[in-house]
């Protein structure tokens, strides 16, 4: 029972550490009072890291953003790339000013020589930036019966923006069947990517379209409005174009055949004079020596 009790207490301790967002090994403990921090761009912010149970602690901070890891603090000293705007203290690090590039996960790691006593805790920092005016890709016409995609995006918002679409000033929501004005349309809206997909386009999809980006910080931004016409596929025009092409091809083939039949493509060369060369028979030295003769 004693062994099982110790194992249970150890599991409970590890579980509690996970709830607090920290990892510990040995007798030390590391935790933060605010694991998720949000702050507007260009403002100051402190990331807290408190620890106990270390007789001679060595503190390090690392910053992870995507696949990139950067050391912010090493052996309780701020690294050169952060020295001009970050200060270290025994209970955290403080940014004098943050930019959108500082958004990411910061991990406070505390250890002692030998590695027998170690703990860490992570803090998620989100630098708030309002969205910029979104750009859209909207064709001026859509072909009825075909699939069509309208796109909307902006690059500045932090956290990333979510998108909504409007036709003639009415919010299209994410499901066409939820709004009476769009019940005859067939489309979907992806608020994460900003794509508006018609599958297929119907005669009811003509109108003025624009999108809106918002991320919960600052003012929602609206794109330029573009008028779109849903048009029928011009089958008659396509057939006429094919017939004209076939007629032109037939005329070209007939012209080539006619030229050949009239001999316009035969090569004509002017007759030249024929030159015959003959080798004369041998003569005595007293006679006139003619080495060759030419008959023209």
What is the gist of this entry?
Helices cover 15% and strands 38% of the residues. With 296 residues, the chain is an alpha+beta fold. It is elongated, with a radius of gyration of 42 Å.
Description:
The chain is α+β, with helices and mostly antiparallel strands and 296 residues long. The chain has helices spanning 2-19, 235-261, and strands at residues 22-25, 29-31, 36-40, 45-48, 50-52, 58-65, 68-74, 77-78, 86-89, 92-95, 104-111, 118-128, 135-137, 141-143, 148-153, 162-167, 170-171, 187-189, 196-198, 207-214, 221-222, 226-231, 276-278, 293-295. The strands form 6 sheets. Strands 1, 3, 6, 7, 8, 11 and 12 form a 7-stranded mixed β-sheet that branches. Strands 14, 16, 17, 20, 21 and 22 form a 6-stranded mixed β-sheet that branches. A 4-stranded antiparallel β-sheet has the order 13-15-19-18, with no helix packed on it. Strand 9 and strand 10 form a beta hairpin. The longest helix has 27 residues, at 235-261. It is elongated and about 105 Å long.
User: How would the global form be characterised?
Assistant: elongated
The portion of residues assigned to helices is 10-25%
Give Rg in angstroms: 42 Å
Residue runs with pLDDT of under 50 for 5 or more positions: 1-21, 292-296
Count of DSSP-assigned helices: 2
- The span between the termini is 133 Å
Output the structural class: alpha+beta
State the total count of DSSP E strands. Answer: 24
SSE ordering? HEEEEEEEEEEEEEEEEEEEEEEHEE
């Amino acid at each position: 029972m004693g062994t099982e009790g110790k194992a249970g207490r150890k599991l409970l301790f590890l579980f509690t550490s996970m709830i607090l967002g920290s990892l510990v090994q040995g007798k030390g403990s590391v935790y933060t009072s605010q694991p998720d921090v949000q702050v507007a761009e260009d403002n100051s912010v402190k990331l807290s890291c408190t620890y106990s149970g270390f007789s001679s602690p060595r503190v390090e901070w690392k910053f992870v953003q995507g696949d990139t890891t950067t050391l912010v603090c090493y052996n309780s000293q701020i690294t050169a790339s952060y020295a001009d705007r970050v200060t270290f203290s025994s209970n955290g690090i403080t940014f004098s000013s943050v930019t959108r590039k500082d958004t990411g996960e910061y991990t406070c790691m505390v250890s002692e020589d030998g590695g027998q006593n170690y703990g860490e805790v992570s803090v998620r920092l989100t630098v708030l930036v309002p969205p910029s005016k979104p750009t859209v890709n909207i064709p001026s016409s859509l072909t009825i019966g075909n699939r069509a995609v309208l796109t909307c995006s902006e690059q500045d918002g932090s956290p990333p923006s979510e998108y909504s679409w409007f036709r003639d000033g009415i919010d299209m929501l994410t499901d066409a069947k939820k709004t009476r004005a769009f019940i005859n349309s067939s489309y979907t809206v992806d608020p994460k990517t900003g794509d508006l997909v018609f599958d297929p386009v119907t005669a009811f999809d003509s109108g003025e379209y624009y999108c809106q980006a918002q991320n919960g910080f600052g003012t929602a931004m609206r794109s330029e409005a573009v008028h779109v016409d849903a048009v029928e596929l011009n089958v008659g025009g396509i057939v006429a174009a094919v017939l004209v092409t076939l007629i032109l091809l037939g005329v070209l083939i007939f012209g080539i055949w006619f030229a050949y039949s009239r001999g316009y493509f035969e090569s004509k060369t002017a007759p030249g004079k024929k030159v015959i060369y003959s080798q004369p028979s041998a003569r005595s030295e007293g006679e006139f020596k003619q080495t060759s003769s030419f008959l023209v």
